[in-house]
Amino acid sequence: MAAVQGGMSDADIETDIKTEPSTDGFGNNNANDGRVLSASPGSGSSTGSNKQTAAVTPEDQQTLLAVLQFLKKNKLIESVEILRREAGLPENSLDPKATESAGAGSGGAAGIVDLEGGDVSSLLSRVTGSSSAGAQAPTKAVAEDQPDVRVVLSAYSQQGDPTLYEVYYSDLKKFIETVLDCHRAELSQVFYPLFVHMYLELVYNNHESEAKAFFEKFSGDQECYYEEDLRVLSGLTKKEHMRGNETLLDFRTSKFVLRISRDSYQLLKRHLQERQNNQIWNIIQEHLYIDIFDGMPRSKSQIDAMSGSLAGEAKREANKTKVYYGLLKEPEIELPLDDEDEEAENEEGKPKKKKPKKDSMGSKSKKQDPNAPSQNRIPLPELKDSDKLDKIMYMKEATKRIRLGSDNLPSVCFYTFLNAYQGLTAVDFTDDSSLIAGGFADSTVRVWSVTPKKLRKVKSAADLNLIDKESDDVLERIMDEKTASESKIMYGHSGPVYGISFSPDRNYLLSSSEDGTVRLWSLLTFTCLVAYKGHNYPVWDTQFSPYGYYFVSGGHDRVARLWATDHYQPLRIFSGHLADITCTRFHPNSNYVATGSSDRTIRVWDVLSGNCVRIFTGHKGPIHSLAFSPNGKFLASGATDGRVLLWDIGHGLMMGELKGHTDTIYSLRFSRDGEILASGSMDNTVRLWDVMKAFDDLETDDFTAATGHIHLQDNSQELLLGTYTTKSTPVIHLHFTRRNLLLAAGAFNP
Amino acid sequence: AAREVKMSAPKTIPKDAQVMIQILKDMGITEYEPRVINQMLEFTYRYVTTIIEDAKTYASHANKSNVDADDIRLAIQCRMDQSFTSPPPRDFLLEVARQKNQTPLPLIKPYTGPRLPPDRYCLTAPNYRLKSIQKKVSSSANRISVPRLSVGAVTSRPTTPTLGTPSVQSVTTKVGTPVSLTGQRFTVQIPPPSQTTTTKPTTPSTPAVSNVLINPSLIGSKNILITTNMVSQNSGGESLKRKHEDDDDYDAL
């Protein structure tokens, strides 16, 4: 606060400023409030005896004045007198004309005077909700009197003269251009949030022409990756336009996070505080959160790698929670000792008769992996007999799996949907690659059989009673042969189906749609069983948990929900994103959920508590695909900017960047053992990346972990193992079979 | 496929369409099918007329002769809250999330079969009911009508594999104890399957039963136990139980 008053050179004011220090304790956000009390002295004439109502805090002062103004407007003169007497307010603290003329008369530097006059009328404007620029404005303020206590308490308070915003901004620009190179990159981060907040403030306070001029002058200076946001802003010129836009409202009320080194921060602070007009300082304090770290300032490339999200970067504390990224221990299943298993056992090098203990998922040690969650951290369904049979099949197939690597690339089999006319919106494969499901824009869900085996419905209850339940092939007998067909169509949704997911036991299919519901379909009767209602807005993605029973969905209402199939309401609500959630994925251990959003961040949520445990920023466009590595340690994400980013979940850092695609990446999949990452994109290609190498190259020392500085190598070219182009089919889904054959799916788009 | 829009000479494109093309360009949309402009114009026209009509209503309600900006503002606001709702604000969502996330995850009961919400929230119940067309039992108490009661009920509910005992029950409860049946013993022949219109052929079982004995003392009670193999098999069907409940609910004839 001292700095604020220090800037004022007018002698009249100094005397009263001495009384100010008692209000200094009110913290940064009350910069205006501090000025409120000093403003009245600025009105010269009769208010030398400005009784400092020490008993009344500045906020209350504002509210009191607002109330007084309201009473005055409604001609409740006596109440005005009584209230004024009781509150001990000076007589003409409300008189705009007197204060305004006095303010104009006190001379001095233009900026300061405007500040003074601006202060008084800014107080009033806060009360009246109208502009306060220059001398004419206060008269207007009286004329368009809109006393509104809400304005007093609103998020945006008038920070001085709107016509001077351009001046403030250019001053800052000049300053930052003159600082040392090493600091310049960091301080340039301030431009974008400052620009947007200043613009929004002008719009919110109805200074349309100033806002437009401000925008035109400075929008070109911003970073290229903010182009989309700026375009949205350019269409937003009136306060009413902001009403329905939840994303922008969230942006206004949340703090944009910047990570700046201590040296750069000191520079900035010193500069702003010694200037006379501290509007920028006030805005910074109110709307920006500066996460200061000790150490070397970051370079432009480092900053560019991490920035781009709608809310700035992530605070360091946001990524400090311990995440149990290890896998759950596989249950012990005895492989049946028949001839078919001869290969399996011989490969493991054990004698034929000995029962193999575990499967191949790396759970060789009996000890609990310190990074793995405990088995009952979240309740999981028990294994049924059919699940155990599935697991046995899985382990058998795993032994026949091809080991992939940079020298051994997978073969790719592409499933092209013909005659979909751009209506194919979602695809999923079952884990054993026997079924493929497609969600379409005409609101149908279709299931095809990939193997020659046809799809059959289960018999009716009447017929089921007639079959021999003890026979060996009872699972065949329950199927009704007359309903055998290559594909089945399921109707039920009333909007395009955007997300689709098979359950691990192949009994259920989930689909999420623009109509706001998530539907559970039975794959035995091919009918809809449940419609889960909760999102009232389009649901962009849904996925079953790797163990079944739970599923997650995310949509336009900016929350992701965790459901269980037997509860009609969600169990957890993951709220925190600023914009739609476009992609939701479970971690292989089912304890965490990752969500990618249009606000260009990825958040990882803990299923047990519902808290956000990781925030990853760095993408420059909405994220459309996520993939967890099979060992649970890493996350890959793809967005509309054509980059695939790799994240280390444990440390919460970006580990790699894979450049190559030229259009949105809609699908990502790790191979079964995690050596290769396949990415499919709208540019009609499938690319294979050597992530084994990317993970090996990672050096995470303490400094990196502590500060979040990352040194990304630009080795995308080395990591790219192959690019496979389709004729004219964007790739919207990828799937590795259990034997590491890559399946891809897309709709032919001539 | 998306195609670029050709800018024809002004004389062929109306002014509104030109404005719309410019708007699309300003918002950064460069590729769009030509019909998009028509759709956007249609939407614009419909929206603006709706708003203006609403505003006229409000102005006349306030006894104003002219529609002014306030009316328009009010019309827009009301329409926004009605048709173009936006998702809830963040603080509300955070509060709801906090409450929801406090409850621990429910334990999973083992061995419960398909894990689905209570039937009320599922879409598994039949959502229709066919009206039965039988005459009243008392009117024609011949031996054919009785089997038709039971078999006919089957036809009216093709989705349920039952022999329709519930519907018989509903008929009889209304009608009361059929007078004609009391004190009589009937030997009833269930018609061969080809005459029935059951969708689920129960061929294996019918030859086994050719005679049905209806014990009159059981008529009028909730369940007419037709002692056939069919019934005993079908009463095991789970949907039978559900059918009872539904019939109790929709007991209207």
TrEMBL record, chain A:
GO terms for molecular function: RNA polymerase II general transcription initiation factor activity. Residues 335-346 have a biased composition (Acidic residues). Residues 22-32 have a biased composition (Polar residues). Its main location: nucleus. The keyword Electron transport does not apply. The keyword Transcription regulation applies. Residues 1-57, 335-383 are annotated as: Disordered. Gene3D superfamilies: TFIID subunit TAF5, NTD2 domain, YVTN repeat-like/Quinoprotein amine dehydrogenase. Keywords: Nucleus, Repeat, Transcription, Transcription regulation, WD repeat. GO terms for cellular component: transcription factor TFIID complex. CDD domains: TAF5_NTD2, WD40. WD repeats lie at residues 417-458, 490-523, 532-563, 574-615, 616-649, 658-691. PROSITE patterns: LISH, WD_REPEATS_1, WD_REPEATS_2, WD_REPEATS_REGION. GO terms for biological process: transcription initiation at RNA polymerase II promoter. It comes from the Eukaryota. Residues 38-49 have a biased composition (Low complexity). It is found in: Nucleus. Belongs to the WD repeat TAF5 family. This is Transcription initiation factor TFIID subunit 5. It comes from Astatotilapia calliptera.
UniProtKB/TrEMBL annotation, chain B:
Residues 195-207 have a biased composition (Low complexity). It is found in: Nucleus. SUPFAM superfamilies: Histone-fold. One of its GO terms (biological process) is RNA polymerase II preinitiation complex assembly. InterPro entries: Histone-fold (IPR009072), TFIID-31 (IPR003162), TFIID_subunit_9 (IPR051431). The keyword Nucleus applies. One of its GO terms (cellular component) is SAGA complex. Residues 190-209, 234-253 are annotated as: Disordered. One of its GO terms (molecular function) is protein heterodimerization activity. Keywords: Nucleus, Transcription, Transcription regulation. The keyword Transmembrane helix does not apply. It comes from the Eukaryota. Belongs to the TAF9 family. This is TAF9 RNA polymerase II, TATA box binding protein (TBP)-associated factor. It comes from Astatotilapia calliptera (Eastern happy).
